[in-house]
Write a structure and sequence with these properties.
103 residues, alpha+beta, 2 helices, 32% helix, globular
């Protein structure tokens, strides 16, 4: 399994709800169609920082998700909401455990 982490700094905090909704409605359906898609998580860290974690079967699929996400930001004209390019980390998942998370 491969993971892609994107950290966005300088996100327009007034648009957090809009961005979350648009990601859910239009980006996630596209990403989930990539063969090998295993999951996506969006993290709102506050202070204009948002991060995402995408999980895929192999590195090619993870790379495809990065290309797709960059195109999506341009197509949706969200450059002002995400004014800085994300810091992207991609790599092989070498340890993991799934389980029940208590809220």
């Amino acid at each position: 399994m491969h993971a892609t982490i994107r950290r966005y700094d300088g996100v327009d905090t007034a648009r957090t709800e809009e961005l979350t909704r648009r990601i859910d409605e239009s980006l996630l359906p596209k990403l989930s169609k990539i063969d090998g898609f295993k999951g996506y998580y969006l993290i709102e860290a506050g202070n204009g920082v948002m991060s995402s974690l995408g999980l895929f079967e192999n590195v090619e699929q993870a790379d495809e998700s990065t290309t797709m996400t960059a195109s999506w930001v341009r197509d949706e004209k969200l450059e002002t909401a995400f004014p800085n390019p994300p810091k992207v980390t991609t790599g092989k998942v070498v340890a993991h455990k799934n389980g029940f998370v208590r809220a």
